[in-house]
Amino acid sequence: MQGRLYDVCIVGSGAGGGMAAHVLTRAGADVVMLEAGPTWDNATDSAMFKWYYETQRRGAATAERHFGEFDAGLGGWSLPGEPYTTAPGQRFMWFRVRMLGGRTNHWGRISLRFGPDDFRRRTLDGLGDDWPITYDVVKPYYDRVDRLIGIFGSRENLPNDPDGVFQPPPRPRCHELLVKQACDRLSITCVPSRLSILTRPLNGRPACHYCGQCGRGCATNSNFSTTNVLLPPARATGKLTLVLHAMAREVTTDQAGLATGVNYIDKNTGREERVRARIVVLAASACESARLLFNSTSSRFPQGLANSSGVLGKYLTDTTGAGVTGFIPRLMDQVPHNHDGSGTGHLFMPWWLDNRRLDFPRGYHIEVGGGRTMPGYGFLGGIHRYPVGGGYGKELKDAYRRYYGAYVGFAGRGEMIPNDDSYCEPDPAVVDQWGIPVLRFHFKWSDHELKQVKHMQETFRAIVAEMGGQVFAPLPGPDRDYGITAGGEIIHELGVTRMGTDASRSVVNPYGQAHDVKNLIVVDGGPFVSQPDKNPTWTILALAWRASDYITEQRRAGAI
Fold first, then answer.
1. pTM for this one?
2. Which fold has domain 1-81+94-133+226-308+492-560?
3. pLDDT tens digits for 87-129?
4. Helix (H) or strand (E) holding 86
5. Hey, CA dihedral for 19, 21, 22, 27, is it positive or negative?
6. CB-based contacts of 236, cutoff 8 Å, min separation 6
7. 178/328 Cα distance (integer angstroms)
8. What are all long-range contacts of 251-256, with beta carbons under 8 Å and residues at least 24 apart?
9. What are residue 45's phi and psi, to 5 degrees?
10. Is the distance from CB of 237 to CB of 26 less than 8 angstroms?
11. Backbone dihedral region for residue 75 (phi beyond 0: left; psi -120 to 50: alpha; all else: beta)
């Protein structure tokens, strides 16, 4: 393999890498993809139809699967032999996945477009920076992603929550109807979710049959992951070579400063190997790609590859998060029925307020969970999370039947504004089991985010009260930062290889092409300039498609 020269080497097989492989192979490029984990096939490797009692652990979390033994994510916030560090007194949780398809195997499929305002926030409120591109630039690629992958939703004509090319959404479930009614009375916008789960057949994939097991990996391929939508067509071209268990160590360069390939550790043998390529595409996830660039040093790039600006690793962000669960008496004593639905909520609440009347900028959206899902399944889904009183035998069973499905959960997901105190850098003293330097994280929520989460908490409780329910947990105060999640806990880390037109203030240009290395392109969440209140996957896919089109044009022109 070391003697073969590929057109493109892609590091990572998740949303960005999968889309790049799909587009570039179909354009005729000879592509090699490095993936740090094993293979994964939804149809054969999913535990979608297994019962908890089929294993000794009853589905509990393991070191390999932090979200449960049946989860489709091989990875977690701590990986044996792969440490990371945090600056003293600070907290950041870095979630990593080691498997073909990356995080696309087990995410919530919440597929939201960024809105026109999200690309120009500095113009609107003077905070952060504007993107060097606009919504109109990305919109055609959002449309392509919708049509290729499939997404359900509804046309709502919300200015900063753009509509897409939607399949029909599923009907709200009982608890969601009560949430919708309460939100209407409170003038809180509440609309059908926008999820990359099929409600109509598409490109040979059947519609979802609503078993509610999306986090386990969809054996029918009705929801989206790169392993069931993007990589099979790429492999069918005969142009994609997969190298599994390949831990990328550095991007190699020549005397002219151009990328020549990637050195990696074969995790099965422990030996260092190399692939050569005319173009290198990084899609290892935002912080992993930054780590790879930091570790790709040379006399020309002593502070890391593509880091002449010194911006590499800076402007790290994550989505803000907080949650509340309320007890709703009206949902007690329900008639037993199948309530699973799609893998997450059928409704959500996009941001609905004007910040000029609030004490914080930007906004958040609210996700809803609950219902009579199988115990342990779904999101905040049942009384298995809460005590129902004492008793044994029939008394206990009757209590479970009464209260089952009577809890509704609300999770806020909001925008973090980049700050100078949140970044990653190489740890000068710590390496992983292969001798590769690890990242050290610095992270801080600002008052903007803390005030936003306080508003989340108050809103959750207002909705529960309007539903005639009760929240048993007290409202967290400022001494507990209003219950905000730790940095990284929502697993939406973005930034660290920021895009821009000024090479002194950014790492890559608006196409993800490194300013310092013209044949190096980044297509994960690293180039993001801001962290809107929308989940980032749909934008990663759209920008990766746009970057791949750019690579194809540049190859044909002989420019790279």
1. 0.96
2. FAD/NAD(P)-binding domain (3.50.50)
3. 999 999 999 999 999 999 989 999 999 999 999 999 999 999 9
4. strand 85-86
5. positive
6. none
7. 10
8. 251/280, 251/282, 251/292, 251/293, 251/296, 251/305, 251/520, 252/296, 253/296, 253/298, 253/300, 253/301, 253/305, 253/517
9. -100, -10
10. yes
11. left
Say which residue the tokens 């115990």 belong to.
375
Q: Other C-beta atoms within 10 Å of 549: how many?
A: 16
- CB distance 550 to 499 below 8 Å: no
The single residue listed with the structure tokens 């996700």 is 367
- Fill in the DSSP letter of residue 158: B
Q: Mean pLDDT over all residues of the chain?
A: 94
User: At 410, which amino acid appears?
Assistant: F
The gap from C-alpha 445 to its chain's centroid, in whole angstroms, comes to 19
Answer for the pair 75, 68: CB distance below 8 angstroms, yes or no.
Answer: no
CA distances to 107, 150, 166, 340, 348 from 200, in Å: 21, 9, 10, 18, 21
Instruction: For the chain, give every domain's residue range.
Output: 1-81+94-133+226-308+492-560, 152-194+320-414+446-483
Q: What's the rounded Cα separation, in Å, for the pair 16 and 504?
A: 25
Rounded-to-5 percentages of helix, strand, coil across the chain: 25, 20, 50
